[in-house]
Amino acid sequence: MISLHDVFEQGTDAVKAAVLAFGTRHPPEAARPDAEPDWKKAERHFTYLIVTIMGNAAPRPSAAATVRRRAENEAIDLLLAFHTMPNYRCPICVKRQRPPL
Q1: pLDDT tens digit string along 39-64?
Q2: Closest by alpha carbon to 25, among 90, 76, 98?
Q3: How far apart are CA 92 and CA 78, in angstroms?
Q4: I want to staple 35 with a disulfide (CB 3.0 to 4.6 A). Which of 12, 31, 78, 100 is the partner?
């Protein structure tokens, strides 16, 4: 699975800006406002985002790589869409903060 770091390294300027914005949505616990993002948490949440997009369906082994690539591309597209929205929150963070039903 592609990492957030790889997305940044391989991406266009817009993708790089979206990755950096996603990182800023993951500040370290009890940190100063100017602190570096918690990149490990951002990386985990990006991976969870890809897994969520892929869903629970188990594709045929021959189609697994295609499904994974599509989910990775969709996750990158989401980062690009989020980046254009002011004050967005990481959907994984929001999901984890929601109380159980």
Answers
A1: 999 999 999 999 999 887 666 777 88
A2: 90
A3: 12
A4: 31
